[in-house]
Specification:
globular; 6-stranded mixed sheet; about 25% strand; single chain
Length: about 240
Amino acid sequence: MHQDVLFISDLHIGLEKPEITRRFLDFLKKRASKAASLYILGDLFDAWIGDDDPTPPNNQIRKQLKALTQSGVAIYFQPGNRDFLLGQRFCQETGITLLDDYVVVDLFGTPTLITHGDLLCTDDLAYQVFREKSHTDDWKSNVLSKPLLLRLLVARWYRLRSYFHKRKKSTDIMDVNQSTVINIMSTHQCYRLIHGHTHRPDIHNFSINNHSAQRFVLAAWHKEAGSVLSWNNLGYKIETL
């Protein structure tokens, strides 16, 4: 019986990144097919402008995700800051389950909080303002009502603008705020947190009210390699693809 629970994030799949696409499809066919479940913690795509977008490699991804869920592997998706417009149509086409921003999972007896990670970066005030506005139903409906070609052009412009904005920000501002981490974990009564977003893979040990706590930061996938956090009843390991 397959017991492994897998966690990945920040693949940023797009037309111009064929190596990552191939590695992800291979991962779904080989490694993920041997697991009990797969959690994708956001930014699977570099940009998602609607479930009606057929731009390659979107249909390849849909097809392989559907094959995996039909084989019995449960797949859960937590939207990131790049693909928060992914909706129910995509879920119905692939069989994946869409999750809220914060979810507590029972990871072999230990309540574990999972999230994409952008909500933890509270020092980046400009981004948090944009995030609050862009996640409203009105904002999403307005964007999705636009013609597909226009959405594609806007997404390309946004990625370019985001790139230059990041170059102006300090790296500390784009990292998580530790006080926010502790408050969120305390609110959800968890002493283990798994997230992505920051592209700073690490395992942080700290304490919350004199109780040992851990924060697992998932690695982003690159042209050279991908990374998976694998968990079973014996513990965890980080696998490099």
